């Protein structure tokens, strides 16, 4: 049986490092892309536009990690 994912752990991981919750959920490409996007947003903060996009991507990553873990768990529960 595939392992259950904790939605809370996924959200907390993405809260501290964007993309880490997605990697925990097994979504490696999405996680790496979020890490890269946030690094670019960090550099864009020097020209102020990063201050707009950084929190948007951060919030997206936290919510997406939480919802993805729940979807994975629902899918695993339906199989058995």
TrEMBL record:
Parts of the chain that traverse the membrane: 31-61
Domain of life: Bacteria
Assigned keywords, A-Z: Membrane, Transmembrane, Transmembrane helix
Protein name: TM2 domain-containing membrane protein YozV
Originating organism: Lacicoccus alkaliphilus DSM 16010
